[in-house]
């Protein structure tokens, strides 16, 4: 029997129902289910269905027992039983406090005798009864639906060690070779839809390319990059350096489509692709986060990229990215 208690599940209750029907002794039921006998006694006593008008229909039924247990837990929720605590939580959520900050501060200040944890607040926000309050809008990521706990998977298998930036050749890092790019995704306000922008910068010439996307799905983004870069000669599109965003998980398509190798920054290290980060700041001057990208055609993005590429840059000896890029194309690298 496990020392760590967990609530009975519907599957447990189905097994219990069959054992109760067979009139198996409680001690044996507890052994078969891997539970303490007190847990089984309590489960049968509290969650047995009783029909006082038709007693013959009374009994322990798995789905009914599961519904009774869920309803009891709903009634006993702390933020339902303590209106004052509920008001404090709502006020602080609307002040853009995170559930962890709220729970921690309530405990630190001893404001309430009732202790709650961040998980209690998340369940309150996303529960059926209180979802209509729209409190999810005040969370850091404002998700309409809650991501299941533990669902975020490590990305090491998606971005293998052989593609880490630490494995990238030195001639890419010191910009001595032409044809190596950095890429990033620019996101705009969610209210305007899912449209986003891929920004790409050639490391040596600082030449900028901007591509509009309709979603953040990786394969369409990669297909757009392949379509845009296919006309260039191979020496002008040798590699791309990205961050570890899931939008770049389909990077192998670049190698298959245009023969370009992909490299990935370390986690939380955007400075490792500083050229495109610098370009993003320049782009944001003309396209801030509240831009409705759905209303901006690709031709306008091309025009903006031409403008940025025609500005002289100190790091290029006051030549323009266009001049340096075209010179390398004419020289063959």
From TrEMBL:
Sequence intervals crossing the membrane: none
GO molecular function, one term: nucleic acid binding
Keyword entries, A-Z: DNA recombination
An example Gene Ontology biological process: DNA recombination
Gene Ontology cellular component list: cytosol
InterPro entries: Integrase_cat-core (IPR001584), IS30-like_HTH (IPR025246), RNaseH-like_sf (IPR012337), RNaseH_sf (IPR036397), Transposase-Integrase (IPR051917), Transposase_IS30-like (IPR053392)
One Pfam short name: HTH_38
SUPFAM superfamilies on file: Ribonuclease H-like (SSF53098)
Top-level taxon of origin: Bacteria
Record-annotated Integrase catalytic domain positions: 165-329
Stored PANTHER family: TRANSPOSASE (PTHR10948), TRANSPOSASE INSI FOR INSERTION SEQUENCE ELEMENT IS30A-RELATED (PTHR10948:SF23)
Protein name in UniProt: Transposase, IS30 family
Lineage: Bacteria, Pseudomonadati, Pseudomonadota, Alphaproteobacteria, Hyphomicrobiales
């Amino acid at each position: 029997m496990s020392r760590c208690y967990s609530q009975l599940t519907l599957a447990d209750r189905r097994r219990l129902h069959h054992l109760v029907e067979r009139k198996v002794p409680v001690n044996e039921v507890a052994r078969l289910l891997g539970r303490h006998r007190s847990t089984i006694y309590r489960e049968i006593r509290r969650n047995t269905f009783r029909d006082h008008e038709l007693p013959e229909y009374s009994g322990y039924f798995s789905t009914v027992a599961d519904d009774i247990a869920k309803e009891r837990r709903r009634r006993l929720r702390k933020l339902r039983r303590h209106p004052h605590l509920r008001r404090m939580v709502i006020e602080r959520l609307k002040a853009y406090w995170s559930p962890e900050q709220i729970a921690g501060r309530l405990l630190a200040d001893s404001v309430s005798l009732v202790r709650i944890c961040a998980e209690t607040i998340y369940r309150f926000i996303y529960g059926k009864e209180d979802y209509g309050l729209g409190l999810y809008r005040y969370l850091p990521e404002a998700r309409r639906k809650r991501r299941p706990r533990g669902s975020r998977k490590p990305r090491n298998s998606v971005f293998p060690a052989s593609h880490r930036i630490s494995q990238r050749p030195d001639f890419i890092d010191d910009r001595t070779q032409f044809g190596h790019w950095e890429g990033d995704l620019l996101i705009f306000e969610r209210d305007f839809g899912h449209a986003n922008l891929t920004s790409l910068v050639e490391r040596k010439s600082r030449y900028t390319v901007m591509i509009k996307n309709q979603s953040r799905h990786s394969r369409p983004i990669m297909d757009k990059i392949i379509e845009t870069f296919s006309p260039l000669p191979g020496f002008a599109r040798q590699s791309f350096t990205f961050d570890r965003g899931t939008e770049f998980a389909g990077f192998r398509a670049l190698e298959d489509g245009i023969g370009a190798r992909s490299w990935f920054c370390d986690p939380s290290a955007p400075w490792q692709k500083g050229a495109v980060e610098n370009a993003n700041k320049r782009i944001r001057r003309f396209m801030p986060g509240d831009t409705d990208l759905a209303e901006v055609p690709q031709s306008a993005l091309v025009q903006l990229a031409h403008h940025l590429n025609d500005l002289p840059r100190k790091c290029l000896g006051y030549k323009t990215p266009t001049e340096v890029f075209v010179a390398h194309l004419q020289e063959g690298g």
